[in-house]
From TrEMBL:
Residues 160-216 form a coiled coil. This is Uncharacterized protein LOC111138139. Keywords: Coiled coil. The gene is LOC111138139. It comes from Crassostrea virginica (Eastern oyster).
Length: 246
């Protein structure tokens, strides 16, 4: 039921492009819309999984388990469609930011896959309960049936242990994937912080350059005024000497 996403290729990593201011605004708006749809579907999946976890494991709940399974599959299909659309958009954008977002979405998709798989394993336990219940009814009717149900019980017990082992493995994998998502989100936050600090530093450098140029211009203007004043005084002094000499 899981979706296999293609890893980022070397070409994807190198053929990136910058966006204009307008393009960045349009990109952020589109990302917001995609994430809003994905969050809505993820909420439905989470609610369905919670219902499955809280469902008591007994024969009278088998019909409820079947209904929840159908709901879960419908929600997962909707999530997969939204996720694939978002990944296609991110790959088409081809910026560093979009490729990082695509990597994060792949990990989130793996996390959802693990949760859905664990929920399906939980639903399989209801099937085992139904089989055991049928075996108990048969054991009341005949001793031959009793031996058969005992054998079936052993088989069901063995299968249940396998299911539980697979469930535990899925839970462990889920924790690992969730940690990967956290690390990637922390890295994205750090990258954004460094990008912001770099922009601030560039602004400070440009402001300092402008300040130095203004100071230099003011100094040159003052020096020019001083030279002009000295020149005028010198000319005035020379003229006075010339008049006196005549």
């Amino acid at each position: 039921m899981s979706v296999k996403s293609e890893p980022k290729t070397r070409r994807e990593m190198t053929r990136v492009r910058p966006l204009s201011t307008l393009g960045q605004e349009q990109y952020e708006s589109a990302v917001h819309q995609h994430l809003r749809k994905i969050r809505e579907v993820k909420t439905d999946i989470g609610r369905c999984i919670d219902d499955i976890r809280s469902l008591e494991l007994k024969p009278t709940n088998i019909s409820n388990a079947i209904a929840l399974q159908r709901t879960l599959e419908a929600c997962y299909d909707a999530y997969r469609e939204c996720s694939e659309d978002f990944l296609s958009f991110l790959h088409a954008t081809r910026t560093v930011e979009s490729l990082n977002e695509a990597a994060a979405q792949r990990l989130i998709l793996d996390s959802i896959d693990a949760k859905v798989e664990a929920a399906h394993l939980r639903l399989n336990e209801f099937t085992l309960v139904a089989k055991k219940e049928g075996s108990l009814h048969k054991s009341v009717r005949s001793s031959t049936s009793n031996r058969s149900s005992l054998s079936s019980g052993r088989s069901s017990s063995s299968y249940l242990r396998k299911v539980e082992a697979k469930l535990n493995a899925s839970r462990a994998r889920l924790k690992f994937v969730e940690r990967e998502v956290e690390i990637l989100q922390e890295k994205a936050a750090l990258d954004a912080f460094l990008k912001l600090e770099k922009a601030k530093c560039e602004i400070e450098i440009q402001e300092r350059k402008a300040e130095i140029m203004r100071e230099s211009f003011d100094t040159e203007s003052r020096d020019s005024e001083i030279l002009q004043t000295r020149r005028m005084r010198t000319e005035e002094y020379v003229n006075k000497l010339y008049i006196k000499s005549n």
